Amino acid sequence: MPAKFYEQDVRSGLKDKRKLSAFLDAVVARYRPDVKKAQLTYIFCSDEHLLQMNRQFLDHDTFTDIITFDLSEEDNKIIGEIYISTDRIADNAAKYKVPVADELHRVIFHGALHLCGFKDKKEADKKVMRQKEDECLAAYKKETDK
């Protein structure tokens, strides 16, 4: 099932949504070959909106670039809602001196990887997550450069 992308009072600047959706399906198939159906919903929002969600659902009082909710009820299905702050994306792109589109795609892949079972709380897990993000970003760039 194709990923869905929504904008909540912000502009994501996201291009080639069909290609991105197909790529996300391939990411899920690669890392979770047991999954028969994946339903990924991305909601782009402001810092303030994501901060309120962070407070309400995670009891964290900090800005974040992404919150991923795994709503899956069956082992062979992935259903997830991924909320992304476009404000954090822009700030992080400037901070790390990378194009906004690259940072946006990295975070989009990060959410999908979480739903595939990758974690990022421990240092070793963060390293693996970053490696997988880099692999996804490189493969997606290669795919879209065709």
General description of the model:
The protein has five helices and four strands; from the N terminus they run E-H-E-H-E-E-H-H-H. The chain has a four-stranded mixed β-sheet, sandwiched between helices. It has one domain (4-144): 3-Layer(aba) Sandwich (Collagenase (Catalytic Domain)). With 146 residues, the chain is of the alpha/beta class. Strand 1 (4-7), helix 1 (17-31) and strand 2 (37-45) form a beta-alpha-beta unit. The mean pLDDT is 94. The protein starts with a strand and ends with a helix.
Order of helices and strands: EHEHEEHHH
The general outline is: globular
Within CATH, the superfamily carries the name: Metalloproteases ("zincins"), catalytic domain
Number of strands: 4
Global Rg? 15 Å
The name of the CATH topology is Collagenase (Catalytic Domain)
Mean pLDDT: 94
Intertermini distance: 24 Å
Q: What is the oligomeric state here?
A: single chain
Q: Beta-sheet strand percentage? A: 15-25%
Count of alpha and pi helical runs = 5
User: What structural category characterises the helix and strand content?
Assistant: alpha/beta
Enzyme class: hydrolase
EC number: 3.1.-.-
Main location: cytoplasm
Function: Single strand-specific metallo-endoribonuclease involved in late-stage 70S ribosome quality control and in maturation of the 3' terminus of the 16S rRNA.
